Amino acid sequence: MKIELHATLRECNTFGFDVSADHLAYLDQMVDIPLLLEKAHSESRPWRVIGGGSNLVLASDLPGYTGLMRLKGRSLHSQTSTHWIVEAMAGENWHDFVAWTIAQGMGGLENLALIPGTVGAAPIQNIGAYGLELAQVMDSLEAFDTQTNAFVRLNVSECNFAYRHSIFKEAPQRWIVTSVRFKLPKNWQPNLSYAELAKAFAEKEASSISSQEIFDKVCEIRSNKLPDPRVLGNSGSFFHNPVVSDKEYQTLKAKFPDLVAYPSQDRWKLAAGWLIDQCGFKGYKKGHVGVYEKQALVLVHHGGGTGQELLSLAQEIQEKVLHTFGVQLSIEPVILRS
Ligand SMILES: Cc1cc2nc3c(=O)[nH]c(=O)nc-3n(C[C@H](O)[C@H](O)[C@H](O)COP(=O)(O)OP(=O)(O)OC[C@H]3O[C@@H](n4cnc5c(N)ncnc54)[C@H](O)[C@@H]3O)c2cc1C
Predict the structure, then answer these.
(1) Pairing between strand 243-244 and 132-133?
(2) Which residues partner with 152 through β-bridges?
(3) β-strand 62-69 against 20-27: which pairing, if any?
(4) pLDDT tens digits, residue range 57-71?
(5) Does position 243 have pLDDT exceeding 90, yes or no?
(6) What percent of the chain clears pLDDT 90, i.e. is strictly above it?
């Protein structure tokens, strides 16, 4: 296992914060995982695993071992009369994997195109976009269980998936995901449940739409809406959309008739971006960090700043939204600090 000392993580997080890892361990093979843990335990040092760094706020230099997930490989694992089962290793780039499945003629993941990061991190927050969540298409995953020191397979039903939530959020650091399998329907149908996609394909018969067309459209919409992290540091949505009861929603709606919200089972999902925008933060700049001018849900790093600066801006936004609407915003990315 290759280990770099005092390695900069600037290229390993999409905010581009320039912090360093005491020991950066490259996880290129399965055996590197137990090796990393053994080293950390025997030297009594902390450890964590990162993927593409697209859902992280690095708020200080990281002590101990930081494992960079780089396991590679993707294949058609098996098939049934109705489904393809495809598998990708945890270090594969998520978007490239989605593109690969489409190129193989296997639709089902196209709504999740252009989400940055790795395949292994996708189940951690149950990535979701454009009317699809990972939980709807995942079959199972393999992970190293740090409690039993063994590789285990977890089926989708064992992962406690919910909106931006999974069992991996409940017990951080218990499992290190090594590969994920997806169940893609042979009788593919377009998923146009998201209003913007439905509108874009309104003129076409569902049977004449291909997964490639949806993939291309999702990429086009996303590129117009979200800043490219290579140009402007960000982690996509910075806050979860708050989920409230019908009673809370009705009270807010009576007070703020323009409130933007979507039904979510028997509750309501409030558009966090709208709440932040109403508080006047869109395009706001504070030192080296700020709020994206086109989408208030996205916090950005203009360069030369720190994770601490970003967290202080996040706190300012949370306080103003709480004061104005009585709604508590929770932070989506994982905060790593010493
Ligand atoms: C421009 C932009 C747009 C985005 N859009 C979306 C979106 O539409 N929907 C959405 O859901 N997310 C979105 N995100 C967030 C992010 O892309 C996803 O959460 C992604 O899955 C994170 O992957 P990563 O490899 O970068 O994980 P990292 O940021 O490296 O890690 C995130 C967490 O996962 C853990 N982790 C990473 N790899 C493993 C592993 N193999 N095993 C166990 N734990 C692991 C880390 O310890 C950390 O806690 C967006 C981000 C950006 C920058």
Answers:
(1) unpaired
(2) 143
(3) parallel
(4) 999 999 999 999 999
(5) yes
(6) 99
Distance linking the first and last C-alpha atoms of the chain:
23
CA distance 210 to 190: 7
Q: Which of 49, 54, 132 to mutate to test the pocket of ligand 1 (most atoms within 8 A of CB)?
A: 54
The residue with tokens 């990708």 is 88
Any residues with Cβ below 6 Å from ligand 1, and which? 14, 48-56, 69, 90, 115-118, 120-122, 124-125, 127-129, 176-177, 226, 229, 234-236, 334
Q: What would the DSSP string read from start to end of 125-175?
A: TT-EETTEEGGGTEEEEEEEETTTTEEEEEEGGGS--BTTB-HHHHSTTTE
Residue 53 identity (one-letter amino acid): G
Q: How are beta strands 74-79 and 56-58 bridged, if at all?
A: unpaired
Active site residues: 164, 237, 332
Phi-psi region of 239 (alpha: psi -120 to 50; beta: other; left: phi over 0): beta
Q: What is the pTM of this model?
A: 0.96
CA–CA dist 80, 111 (Å, integer): 23
Q: Minimal CA–CA distance to 116: which of 222, 240, 273, 241?
A: 222
Distance 55 CA to ligand 1 centre (A): 4
Q: Output the residue whose Cα is nearest ligand 1's atom 21.
A: 122
C-alpha 39 – ligand 1 centre gap (Å): 25
Q: How many residues does the chain have?
A: 338
